[in-house]
Design goal:
- The chain is mainly α.
- It is about 65% helix and about 0% strand.
- The longest helix has 16 residues.
């Protein structure tokens, strides 16, 4: 299980990603708030991260990094308007998390074939499992 500092780091990273398009849309805010609730982070702490982001903390668990990458993919696809800037930022976040370049590219390639570009968690895990072994 990840600790509070790691949870705040995850949310801060997601907020920074959502701000790629400069303003966060209502649907993105609601998604981020839902993730905050799943992580047991209060609304006050969540809102605080918008003004005062926390420093990135590298997750030790490979599976937690995959889950975080999946959250970022879901966040990117919420508004159905994916910019090149978002794709580059997502790719860089994945690399910074220590995920393989090949797996990240594979996820980005196959997401086009799924409804609403949402890669099912099981499929995503299989992509990373192949590269991890």
């Amino acid at each position: 299980m990840i600790n509070r500092v790691e949870k705040l780091s995850l949310l801060s990273e997601m907020i920074a990603f959502a701000q790629t398009d400069t303003n966060i849309k209502s649907i993105e805010y609601k998604f981020l708030l839902g993730v905050a609730r799943q992580l047991d982070i209060s609304q006050e702490d969540f809102d605080y991260l918008f003004k005062y982001p926390v420093t990135y903390v590298h997750l030790k668990s490979h599976s937690e990094r995959i889950v975080q990458f999946h959250r970022l993919v879901l966040l990117m696809n919420l508004d159905k308007d994916i910019s090149e800037k978002e794709l580059v930022k997502l790719h860089n976040f994945g690399l910074r998390m220590g995920l393989s370049h090949e797996s990240i590219n594979r996820v980005l390639d196959v997401m086009e074939s799924f409804p609403n570009k949402i890669v099912p968690p099981d499929f995503l895990i299989e992509i990373f499992k192949v590269q991890y072994n």
